[in-house]
Amino acid sequence: MKLLQAVFIVLFLFPWILRAQDFGQLDVKVSNKTGPLEFVSVGLQGTHYGGSTEESGRISIPKVPYGEYQLLVRMVGYKSIKQSIVLDQSKLAIELIMEEESTALDEVVISGTMTEISKMESAVSVDVYSPKFFKANPNPSVFESMQNVNGVRPQINCNVCNTGDIHINGLEGPYTMILIDGMPIVSGLSTVYGLTGIPQALIERVEVVKGPASTLYGSEAVGGLLNLITKTADRAPKVSADVFATSWGEINSDLGYKFNVGKNLQSIVGLNYFYYQNPIDNNGDNFTDLTLQDRISVFNKWTMKRKQGRQFSIAGRYVYEDRWGGEMQWTPENRGGTDVYGESIYTRRWEVFGVYQLPFRETINFQFSANGHNQDSYYGDLSYQAQQNIYFNQLTWHKSIERHNLLVGAAYRVTYYNDNTVATEDEHLTYLPGLFVQDEFEINSQHKLLAGMRFDYNSIHGEILSPRLNYKWTSMDKKNTIRLSIGNGYRVANVFTEDHAALTGARDVVFEEELDPERSWNTNLNFVKKMTTSNQTFIGVDATAFYTYFDNRIVPDYESDPNEIRYGNLDGSAVSKGVSLNLDLSWQNGLNALVGATVMDVRLDENGESKRQLLTEQVSGVWNVGYTFGASLISVDYTGNLYGPMRLPLLGELDDRSDYSPWFSIQNIQVTKKFVNGLEIYGGVKNLLNFTPPANSIARAHDPFDENVQFDTNGNVLSTPENPNALTFDPSYVYAPNQGIRGFLGLRYTLHQ
Predict the structure, then answer these.
(1) Last residue within a domain, chosen from 229, 258, 274
(2) Coiled-coil annotation: which residues (predicted)?
(3) What is d(CA 168, CA 153) in angstroms, rounded to the nearest whole number?
(4) How far apart are the C-alpha atoms of 466 and 141, rounded to whole Å?
(5) Has residue 6 got a pLDDT over 70?
(6) 468 and 432 inside one domain
């Protein structure tokens, strides 16, 4: 009886069992605007069902169980397609059209010409880096994130407080202009602090221009510029969060939120918080290896939708940071005293900037910005109190006349700076009105010429002219581009606001003369090639040769007197020259690589003697290699850099430390798991090789106030049994961070609607 019941149940349920195991066939045809696409990867997420399209653009996937799936369609050079499907019939046919995707060699850029234009169409060479590039090696600040950009190096200038600046093609930080949404927000006093605290979740892209851009942007844009483009409200996610922590105890949080007020007003709010309060001394010199920091930054941007698409936006940011480094036993009670050495810096900074497109038929934009930077700091017992306010406004007019694209602008900048040093005994205010004009002339579809001229009047140094000329050739198939540029740059220096070494340590600062503005001439030759091989591997080549010649170069002299840093205009010339190469590679299997190398020679020629610039490498390399494991949404990123020897500042002939740094490399690895609901979990290891400079990077770390240093009547350090190498306390012998290997773990979440 039981056997009959079992047979009856099986016979009764058999059709339903068959129904549950029904299989169907999925037919997919993929095309672009011109026709079928071959070698397109088509698959069902989370399954082994899939393959590549044939010459006809078609693929048939048989014996797929009925059910709901996520269809993934990918191909190098095209935007990926992700579509929900339901297979509940014997055959399901789908036709898809793929859109071409801008690669790293074909982004929309604005920094080179002040107008939005495709990178390939721009007569000025601009490197573009998206948030995806920086996520491969997450960092708590934009400053640290630049370590994997070819030809760009974040330079730590002080072993104690870990402040630094951005070098481009071997030129120091003061020659690099930092822009936020095209506004000169970060400069002068904020040069060494302004790249911290910017919520990276709200950065749309970072544009890098190598070479002078003074014709459009004025002083400081001598070596190049970084332009941080923040997201507009219509492109920002509804909610974003990125939080990670390291095994050293660092915690970084980036939060973003978007909301609407009525129909025409949108706002995005960003918050960055970085916390590190774990003194570590792995090299045993009794000084913190990493500066302790407590920093909060709040960012808010408003965008108003106006008639005929005219733009109006205004944004603001506030930053507060409490940073200190020094002897391990230092406490806030020791601030400014002589018992325990510490460098304590309180920073308060505010920024406001925006753009308003005037209601005229022509494109006329009014741009404005204002910022205030207040620094309350002690370097041992040396007090440095400084305040800087910069007010900037600019009016630009764009006009297209046949094959000419004209840009005319007027700018006015007021800088107030005051500190408690000899640098500001006389002048506190600097006025800088300027006029500029640019004509981008399209000779034909292959040839383009850009010419520009700027006139500035500095209230202290007088009239300044800055011309530039750019030429671009593009092949008929748009796969080859050559750019040639020549331009002039200038810079008015303020030593104490830009060179942190002038404040830290025991050396005295000496001005040999009144500093004149620096002038430079630069020429660049850039070649770009895009190609796709027969197996659908994308290869992008971006090669540049550069040459920069300086007049009146201001060079800190660490070598004439071990007790002093001497500043003066170079009685001679300075040259920066070299070549760089970027390779952008993408394979059909999900492997991507961006590899770069730069070889350069930066020299100072004075009194018939030629010598390499201090703290400047001749060879450097960077890489960013990523691989995604198919539909699992697991990816691995391997990033790193390599630097050749740099000439280092010694304290005299008896200083037994090496006068050149060794070859060194900082390498990182990260694994990321994405989920379909916008969640990401990532983790990895930074500084895999655990490279750190030697423990003697800080000279006489045991005697930071030079209590046991003896001097002769001329102020020269004497060699004694306690101090045989005639050294003083000095933390400027620095070429790499002191932070060693560490693990990290993070969480990201993005909600678009």
Answers:
(1) 229
(2) none
(3) 7
(4) 33
(5) no
(6) yes
Residues 118 and 27 in one domain: no
DSSP assignment string, 402-421: TTEEEEEEEEEEEEEEEESS
Tell me the pLDDT tens digit for each residue of 379-408.
999 998 989 899 999 999 998 888 899 999
Domain match, 27 and 163 both? no
For residue 6, the enclosing domain spans 2-97
Q: How far apart are CA 512 and CA 557, in angstroms?
A: 10
Distance CA 650, CA 560 (A): 10
**What would the two tokens of residue 158 be?**
């002080």
In degrees and rounded to multiples of 5, residue 312 shows phi and psi of -150, 125
Q: Which two tokens stand for residue 493?
A: 């220096």
Of the two residues 686 and 311, the one the predictor is more confident about is 686
Strand, coil or helix: 216: helix
Please give the mean pLDDT across all residues of the chain. Answer: 85
Task: Residue 165: give its domain's CATH number.
Answer: 2.170.130.10
Check if the beta carbon of residue 480 is closer than 8 Å to that of residue 105: no
Residue 18 pLDDT greater than 60, yes or no: no
Q: Let me know whether 521 and 393 are in one domain.
A: yes
392, 431 Cβ separation under 8 angstroms: no
Q: Over 60: is that where the pLDDT of 722 sits?
A: yes
CA distances from 317 to 73, 129, 185, 352, 394 (A): 40, 22, 11, 7, 20
Sign (positive or negative) of CA dihedral 234, 237, 239, 245: negative
Rg for the chain, CA atoms, rounded: 29
Give residue 78's identity as a one-letter amino acid code: Y
**Entry pTM:** 0.82
Return the closest-CA partner of residue 123 out of 546, 480, 526.
526
| Residue 190 confidence (pLDDT) | 72
Nearest in space to 734 (alpha carbons), one of 329, 156, 49, 112: 156
Which pLDDT score, from 0 to 100, does residue 377 have?
A: 92
Rounded CA-CA distance 459/454 in Å is 16
Q: What does the longest C-alpha to C-alpha distance in the chain come to?
A: 118
Which pLDDT value is given to residue 53? Answer: 83
CA angle 268, 272, 274 (to 5 degrees): 175
Q: Give the tens place of pLDDT for each residue, 60-104.
A: 888 888 888 888 887 756 677 888 888 888 888 899 988 766 444
The more confident residue out of 732 and 269 is 269
Determine phi and psi for 6, rounding to 5 degrees: -65, -45
Mean pLDDT of 518-525: 87
pLDDT digits 0-9 by tens, 108-164: 566 666 666 667 778 888 888 888 899 999 999 888 989 999 999 998 888 898 888
CA–CA separation, 743 vs 454, rounded Å? Answer: 49
Do 241 and 329 lie in one domain? The reply is yes
Whether 534 shows a pLDDT value over 80: the answer reads: no
pLDDT at 79: 75
* Higher pLDDT, residue 417 or 296: 296
CB 739 within 8 Å of CB 691: no
Q: How far is CA 128 from the centre of its chain?
A: 10
- Comparing 188 with 460, which gets the higher pLDDT? 460
In terms of domains, do 114 and 185 share one? yes
Among 214, 229, 244, the domain-final residue is 229
CB of 258 closer than 8 Å to CB of 237: yes
Number of domains in the chain: 3
Instruction: Give, in degrees to the nearest 5, the angle at Cα 150 between 622 and 466.
Output: 170
